[in-house]
Amino acid sequence: MNRSPESKVKTSPEVANESVDRERRRFLITATTVIGAVGVASAAVPFIGSMNPSRKAVAAGSPVDIDISKIHPAELITVLWRHKPAWVLRRTPEQLAALPGMDPTLKDPRNRQPQQPPGMAKGVYDYWRSIDKEYLVLIGICTHLGCIPDYVPKPGGSLGPSWKGGFHCPCHGSMYDLAGRVLKGSPAPLNLPVPPYYYVSPHVVRVGALNKGGLEENWTPAIW
Ligand code: FES
Fold first, then answer.
1. What does the pLDDT average to over 52-81?
2. Is the Cβ–Cβ distance between 145 and 174 less than 8 Å?
3. I want to staple 169 with a disulfide (CB 3.0 to 4.6 A). Which of 31, 142, 161, 194 is the partner?
4. How far is the CA of 135 from the centre of ligand 1 (A)?
5. H/E segment holding residue 80
């Protein structure tokens, strides 16, 4: 049977080389963006995968450190944690100013549902849902059926004149404000989850732990 050059069956060494090249490329991409779960993820890339110390360790919940010093105002970055997209959004003063007025439009404005670590749903956390109000840390998974919402910071536009900026799920249209609180009328039942995290230093957020004592093993959001 004639075979064109393109359809030539690849020999084992060729396949192996391709596989190595793919792995190498992936490693190089990753190595330039993250030092692993024990290192610090750069804010200069939009999506960062973690490969070190091991995927198993990360999947099991090893914390991931994120350098937030290079995030620009209104910029959102994504880092993998437990194979989930962990977002950090640096909110502008204008974005923060819109949050207190959102209450009448929200399903759970006071964070009554356990979609954030215990203790992060009271008082000053109500509007911001973050330790430092400027930096929002969320898991970017819609609480309806698990799609990844889009970050739509610009008010108005195709989402209508009442849209103040936030997150819009492309699957069935759920909308969340810039604190990840779900808007009334959305099919999603709950706010976007806030992962356990704390500040290792003024510019490094550790996602996957609530304090320096280690992992928060007994807490997960109701839906994520
Ligand atoms: S999965 Fe997001 S609205 Fe359905």
1. 81
2. no
3. 142
4. 24
5. strand 76-81
Expressed in angstroms and rounded, the spacing between residue 1 Cα and the centre of ligand 1 is 50
Integer Rg of the chain from CA = 20
Q: What is d(CA 99, CA 121) in angstroms, rounded to the nearest whole number?
A: 15
* Strand intervals (E) in 100-196: 135-139, 150-152, 166-168, 175-176
Over the stretch 10-52, which tens digit does the pLDDT of each residue have?
333 333 344 333 333 333 333 333 333 433 443 333 444 433 4
Helix (H) or strand (E) run with residue 55 in it: helix 55-60
DSSP secondary structure string for all residues of 21-33 = HHHHHHHHHHHTT
Q: Is the CB of 142 under 6 A from ligand 1?
A: yes
Residue 202 has a pLDDT of 95
CA dist 211 and 197 (Å) reads 7
- For the chain, domains (ranges, CATH) are 10-211 (2.102.10.10)
